[in-house]
Amino acid sequence: MEKLGVGIVGTGWVSGEYIRAFEADPRTEVHAIVSRDKERAHAKAEEFNLQRARAYEHLEKLLDDPGIQIVVLATPHHLHVQQGIAAAQAGKHIVIEKPVALNLEGLRELQAAVHAAKVKTVVSFVLRWNPLFETIRAMLADGFIGKLFAAEVDYLHGIGPWYAQYYWNIKKDMAGSSLLTGGCHAADGLRWFVGKKAVEVFAYANTSPDNPLHYEYEANSITLVRFEDGTIGKVASSVESIMPYVFRIQLLGDQGAIRNNEVFTRRWPGQKDWAAIPTVLPDSGDVAHHPFPQEVSHFVDCILEDRESHANLDDAALTHEICFASEISAREHRPVSLPLK
Q: Could you tell me the pTM of the whole model?
């Protein structure tokens, strides 16, 4: 079988993980890299010994390349809508780093372009392929802790000058909000575990008193979510917390509970304390720790089998709507109904 050609847009930290993942899949090969600085694209290709990869300084040249079937948008957030629309109109399947858009209007424009082009998409809520996430989903499907009635997923990740994306991540027009720029992983995890439609959001947000990291938006938020079956959820997000990275999961069911990789259930008579699951946790902000190979393999399967990903753009839009609604609620001090109009 002829390999699918992949074009990587962006040469930052996360682009390297996509290169590794696509090069590891025997069905794909990286054929091109795009950077505003063509020499950076050349350097990235050399770093990964991509002898057949071409370097481009304009996205249009990559999209005109007939040898490219998949485009990876590993660029700053504010570029994703424009680049995604162009890729869809060129008939390319698209991997989109999160967040895919910084406002509802841009999200809807991108969705319309993808629908019109009938291309496949996957939004990189990569933790869906984390082993703990997969274990929890299997336990929930088996009714291991009964019916969920409350769920919490938190993202606490101090992003300062020591972090590669800090210098643009502090800008409102490039990062959006605490929940969008990083906490969206937790919002998506909440949706992924509850498995129901979110219908209402209420939120508070703030920044620390002196704002030492100079964020242009409120760097911390707590978002409450009500789901259609009455389940309640909470997402805390902070990008200025002074602490090691924390991704916290707590799920309460009528037959037990899950706390990160620990479980307590009525299925085990006589259980007196939490039982630990020895697995890989989502406990690092390092992109090298994230399961990109599994995400990439899944997406290639979707393309070759002509089916939609569970993390396609339309599904990711539901997570983004929670993030947009959180920002509206915190600003206007009111609950916000979903879906957003």
A: 0.96
